[in-house]
Every structure is written in C-alpha cells, then in structure tokens.
Amino acid sequence: MDSWTSPDVPALPFTAEDPRVHDTARGAITPLAPPPGQEAGLYVCGITPYDATHLGHAATYLTFDLVNRALRAAGHPVRFVQNVTDVDEPLLERAERDGVHWEELASREIQLFRDDMVALRIIAPDAYVGAVEGIPSDVAAIQTMLESGRAYRVPAEDAAADAGESPADVYLDLAQVPTFGEVSHWTPAQMLEVYADRGGDPDRAGKRDRLDPLLWRAHREGEPHWEGGSLGAGRPGWHIECTTIARDHLGTPFLVQGGGDDLVFPHHEMSAAQTRALTDGAFAEHYVHQAMVGLDGEKMSKSKGNLVLVSRLRAAGEDPAAIRLALLSQHYRTAWEWTDAHLEAARQRLDRWRHAAQTATTSPSTADAGDGPAGDAVARQLAERLTDDLDTPGALAVVDRWADAVLGEQTGAAAAAERTEARSVRTAVDALLGIDLG
Ligand code: ZN
Fold first, then answer.
1. How far is the CA of 267 from the centre of ligand 1 (A)?
2. CA geometry: angle 167, 168, 171, nearest 5 deg
3. Could you give the CA distance from residue 83 to residue 31 in angstroms, rounded to a whole number?
4. Residue 415 — very low, low, confident or very high, per pLDDT cuts 50/70/90?
5. Phi first, then psi: what are they for 131, rounded to 5°?
6. Mean pLDDT across the chain, nearest whole number?
7. Is 119 exposed, middle or buried (0-12, 13-18, 19+ CB in 10 A)?
C-alpha cells in the first residue's frame, strides 16, 4: 500500500543520548538501545479506516514520530512499519450503515489519514501494509500453528459452502503459551472484563478458553472472504495481521511496538502470544503506549462519536503546526482532555517562536554568535528533554525560554547565553519536534 511523503528531517550537529521511554511490559523507564549500526525496528499499529483521524490518533502517531526522531538523533537508523486494518468488523459495520462498499470507505479514509499525516509532518513508514495484503502470510502462519497443535478448529456450522468440507473457525490455544500476560500483566478476570468490548468473542461456544483469540473466521454468506488453502475460504482475525506484518517487514523481535494504551490488551498481548506460538521467541523488545485523549469527560472514540478530526480543523484553516504543538504540550503518558484552549495556546506559542526565530536571524546583536557551543546549548537541552521519556512539556519550555530571551524579556548573562544563533535552534526544533519555524 502506498505510504505518504515524509517531511525532511535535518541532521543535528551532535549525537543525542539513546532515548529512554516507559516500557509497559517492564513497568519501568528503559533505554531504547539497538546494537550500534543495526536498524531500530519500530512498529506502530495503524488505523481501522472507517472514520478520519481524530486527535487521539494524532497524539499516538505523533508520540511514535518523536520516538523515531529521538532514535535518529541518537544515531540509529530506523525502520518504521505500520499496518492498516483494512478489513475488520467495525469497518464492515460502518460501510453497511452508510450504504457504501467497505473497500470504497476504506480507501477514502486511508487517503484522508495520509493527508493528515503529511500535514502533521509525521515521518512516513518504510512499509505501510494493509491487512488484506498480509492474508497469504496469515494463512501460512495459522497453518503452522495448527500443525504444531498450538491452534485448534471450532466447527462453524453456519459457514458458506466454499469454507471447506468441515468448515471451522481457528483459535489460538493460550494454554500452550506460558508467557501469556507478559505485556499487560493483567489477571484473566481483568482481561475478561474488557475483552468483548475490545473485539474479543469470549462467549463463542466450543472455545477451550474464553480468552483464546480468533485466528481465522470461516466464510459466512455476505462477508468478505479470501482463499485460505487448507483453512478454507474466510478471513483473518484482527491480531494475526500485526503478528505477520511485523515479522515479514521487520523480523522479530524488533525494538518497539507502539500504539494507544487501549491496545495493551488484547491487541498487543495477543500479537505477542501468537508470535510465541509461531516462533517460540518474543514479538517486541519494548512496548510503549500513548494515553487516551478525552473530550467532554470521555475517551475520544469513534463508538462514542465525540471526535475532533484533524481534517476538520485543517479545513477550517488551522495551521497543522499549531495542532502538532497543541498535542506536544501534553506528556504522552498522561490522559488529558482536549479543549479549544489548547489550540489557542499553541497558536500563540507558534507565533512567538516564529517571531523569535525571525528576530534572532535579523538582530545584529545575535548575528555573530555563530554555531559554537552557545549556539548549540538550546538544541542540546531540547534533545535532553526529548530523550528523557519524551518530556515534551519540558522541551517546549526550553524553546519558550529561548524565545523569551530573544524577544528581550529576560536580562543578564543567562539571557545573553540563550540568545543563540537561530539556525541551531531552528534545526533542533525541526529535527526533534517536527515544527518548522520558517
Ligand atoms: Zn497492531
């Protein structure tokens, strides 16, 4: 599937420290440290394309864009992969409701998502892969799990004629994956509490364990389906797509699995369990999650219908850099509520930064500061904040102080030191925060 066009990411004049981030599975802040010279594999779960990018999505993709930028700043080449869940229940239901073919709905929403990502200056994936593209790999993986006895069939009496002679859905046998729970560390009771709401089918008769995830759904009349070899016609379950796309495009284990924190369970837990069942190895070395963004006291979500869409803000003439800056003003691990005040504050900050960049460039008192150590100080502080668990509020404060100094609101030696040559600051703000100061 076509990716989108990446923004230019300027090189920093120094190498930053390896970023440290909070790893959900370890329950601790840990350094992301790929072996020198080796690619850092970054996999971020993509959208189900039935509604355009809302600010909760944007916050997630921005957070992992920062991880990407921080790894690059630390001198690591990054290979970034993202999927699109371009066939799944919610997409099919929405298409049915709206009287539009699901493929048409998906391709329209995927294009809108790409446009939003370009506007927000999110670095594009090296491989942007649709779930449908991965189906042959899914089929092979499920066949392997059946052969090893780690997956099992549950008869599907209501299946269509082309689903095989004894049609069946296929499930992973979690009892054979002793590491199950390694990502969330939840108890089975905690898992069951949310499983049905998050796409699981705990009450499907014939399952060995209520939590066992669906790997393959036999074809039912009226549902999209693909040739599944010995599985019969059907379609894959949700989690298997990421298991195989990550394995095919990054290899496992890769460095970072990322997504919104509603993916901790079941999605990332199941992706990890399926990888163990397939390879006996780990899925990812680190699991990193973005907290939810709320609106009017509730999580922003399609099912609740309380969405602020990036495309709608853009259509109303909002500068995407201000949207990006509004999201950057909040730390990724703290749930927060979007209000218009965030956007207003971001507009003012952006104006101020751009004004400072302009002033510092033209002011005779700062023109001779050069690119020496003083010129790099702000850039280095910025990198320090970003690599310290993506401390974006702290990073914005560093640039705010620089802008204050340039615009003459601070006096004395400290201000003079911060009134640095604008080029270094501009480069760092662009490379690390993805904000172009013009
Ligand atoms: Zn995923």
1. 6
2. 165
3. 25
4. low
5. -55, -40
6. 92
7. buried
For residue 69, pLDDT beyond 80: yes
- Which amino acid, residue 223? E
Q: Residue 266 pLDDT more than 50?
A: yes
Q: Tell me the C-alpha distance between 300 and 306, whole Å.
A: 6
Find the 85 Cα to ligand 1 centroid distance in Å: 8
Q: What is the pLDDT of residues 190-219, one digit of tens each?
A: 999 999 999 999 999 999 999 999 999 999
Ligand 1 midpoint to CA 110 (Å): 16
Reported residue count of the chain is 438
Phi, psi at 285, each rounded to 5°? -80, -30
| Neighbouring residues of the ion ligand 1, judged by CB less than 5 Å | 45, 242
Residue 213 CA to ligand 1 centre (angstroms):
14
Q: Write out the H or E segment, with its range, that includes residue 30.
A: strand 28-31
E strand intervals along 208-296? 214-218, 234-236, 254-260, 284-290, 293-295
The burial class, CB within 10 Å (0-12 / 13-18 / 19+), for 361 is middle
Cα 271 to averaged position of ligand 1 atoms, centre (Å): 7
Q: For residue 288, report the distance from its CA to the centre of ligand 1, in Å.
A: 13
Tokens of 142: 């499920």
